[in-house]
Write a structure and sequence with these properties.
This protein has 377 residues and is mainly β. It has two domains: 26-190, Jelly Rolls; 218-376, Galactose-binding domain-like (Jelly Rolls), CATH 2.60.120. 5% of the residues lie in helices and 45% in strands. It has one helix and 31 strands. It starts with 9 loop residues before the first helix and ends with a strand. The model is unreliable at 1-25 and 371-377 (pLDDT under 50).
Length: 377
Amino acid sequence: MAGGVRSRCPLLLLFLVGVAARAAASGVVTDGLLPNGNFELGPANSALNGTRVMDPNSIPNWEISGFVEYIGSGQKQDDMILPVPEGARAVRLGNDATIRQRLSVVRKASYSITFCAARTCAQAERLNVSVAPESGVLPIQTVYTSTGWDSYSYAFKARHSAVWLTVHNTGVEEDPACGPLIDSVAIKTLGPPRLTKGNMLRNGDFEEGPFIFPDTAWGVLVPPMDEDVVSPLPGWMVMSGTKVVKYVDAAHHAVPHGARAVELVAGREAALVQEARTVPGRRYRLSFSVGDAANGCEASMAVEAYAARATARVAYESRGTGGSKRAELEFAAVADRTRVVFQSDNHHMRTDGTLCGPVVDDVALVGVRGHTARRLL
């Protein structure tokens, strides 16, 4: 695999340092792992019945309800070993189980939550993640990594300066312990998805996105979302029923441009979408990079791009060692808003069973002159 803020002036740097200092002094949560976000601080033995946590306030910094278990790495359930991705401890959310933590935040600011989750014995596991009044259901039926653990993201806009982050397993199984394992819960403040000079799309380089754990090499999954929901990937939506896209970083993957990119890991079942203001009849050029993440995903890949009535299929032969190519799509707008859409034309899998796909990065939309819309690959 391939490895990987600048201040505009000293005054801006001093300003940012001052803001961070005031946030820390006020107790506002800072980017990174939440207090006891890895659950390494656990309940006293007197609060446990076997592995089940009986006291709702016995896990430091968390409140629980329902069937919650405190799990040690390598613990077995029947013939299944329950691994832990970080440290030695995690929690398992069984029937109607909830964990929650109260967070001090900046009112009206947007945040993303990243956490690790793994399926155990239930067949249709899903999690309801919420910061009232917003909530989202994260489908975790599909396992994207060979380890069984995936990192998921969720975003919200703070309505108040103190909020409750809640993770709830809505399932009810015959075995009340059946449910997902949860570990490593982190937060990140999201910058607003502003337009930049020379690009009609926001966050076209994907540099703004959810927190990526530095010690995990599998990226972060961005789930499907409604159009009015805050996105963990500012400016972009994921359109799907139950599938996701993966947010990857240059520290663990090959990234065509900058430090972040998106890997399309669900074939045609998920689309990466952004809507831009356009003028009907005027022509535009959509340019973007297509490559592979240097994660061993060897395949004949293709990314399909759509804008207005124009389409492009960009083929990429991946050896799984990194690399990218540039592509363009020119189109004539047919409405005052145009959706830009990217999806992989097929499913791909590494030899170890990890789902993978083509990488998209450095997306730009600009107006062009001339009279004939054309497609360039």
